[in-house]
Structures are given as C-alpha cells and as structure tokens.
Amino acid sequence: MHGRLIRSIDGGQTWSNVATVEGEVSSLLVLPQQKTRLLATSNGQLHVSEDSGASWRATTHKERFTVLSDAFHSAVVYAGTNQGKLLNSVDNGSTWSVCPGNFPQGMVMDIAVSIQDPKVIYIAIVGKGIYRSEDQCSSWQEANNGINDMAIITVSISPIDKKRIYAGSIT
Question: What is the C-alpha separation between 75 and 58, in angstroms, rounded?
C-alpha cells in the first residue's frame, strides 16, 4: 500500500500530489519556527521536506515513528513510536533523543502539548490509556481515572485551559 502527501496552496480549493510514500501517511506537521520545514510519518518512517512540501526525503532514523506533535512556539518536536517510546527533538526534528519516562510500553497513538504551558504533555498509549507529564517529559503520571475501560487513541488539550483535556476512543 502507498500513501500520498498532497498539498493545497489555495485554501483547499484544489489539491496536488507532491510525494508518494510506502504505507499510509499517519501524521503530518508544519513546524512553527521553520515554516517551510514539514515532517510526516508513514509506515513507521519519518519523512522531511525543507521546501513547503514540494519535495520529500525519507530519514534513516532507527525508530519507527507513529505520530508527531509540536510545542507550538519553539524548535521542540515530539514523536511517538510503535515500540512504546516518546522522543523529543530540540532542533525541529533534525536529531532525536528518548524522553525519560515511567509510562507503560505500548504504541504511542497521540501526543498533545499545552499551548499555555509547553511543559504539560499528554500521550495516548494503545491499551494503556492517557499519561501526563508536567515537566516536559521527565516524569509521567497515569491520567486514566474514569476511562480505564476505553481504548483511547487520541488526546487534545484546550488552548484556553490546560486542565481541559479531550480524548477519543474506539469503544
């Protein structure tokens, strides 16, 4: 199966194919500090564009990426892997390091970073639920009170209230 990276330059009126990649495109991120740099994941691989999506190159990173998230106003980017790791980059995705963490192993399905406080991060892990860090991924606490029986696959933080969290499940 192949996925396509497509682009609109007229607000969605028309679309054009800019790249074909192996597997489905599961995440796409325009970096806030480098507006022409984009990151995409497909089939566990990280792809990078330096020219607003006109061309793409696959990276040779050893991790299998599942999802990307940014910290909005910095060069910090987070990536989840299907090996149950959370990675962070402080240089717009050029280099990556593993975030320390006491969260359980499982595929990281989604990452949410607070606009109000970029130290606050939530992650959704397959079969494990939601975990929260309030110190930019140095330590983690389970945040599953009342949702233990749900298969959470996505999480989001309100831009006006960092304590208001939304989650989506498949059950």
Answer: 20
